[in-house]
Structure prediction request, 103 residues.
Amino acid sequence: MKPRKSRTAPEISRQFILDATMTLASKGDYFLLRRDDVAQAAGIAPALVSYYFGTMPQFRRTIIREAIRTNNLYIIACGLMHRDPRAMACDVEIKKQALGVML
Prediction:
């Protein structure tokens, strides 16, 4: 395994953490993600997840908004299964595509 480069504070950004989160969420249910899981995947302290994204409900809203923005159908489908209001408000065609991913 390749050694991980140590990150300095300026390199740790909201988008960096969100990218790691989206990768992790695409492998499971975004609703079950924990700060510790995200922090471990990003190689950061869990407190930074809270610093950038607030509470877990706020973080989940950010995840689903990013999934909609990037058309991540798997995460949108997870949002639909949890009746997330943002996922439920998606275009009907996106909902159909997302649910098709789960079948």
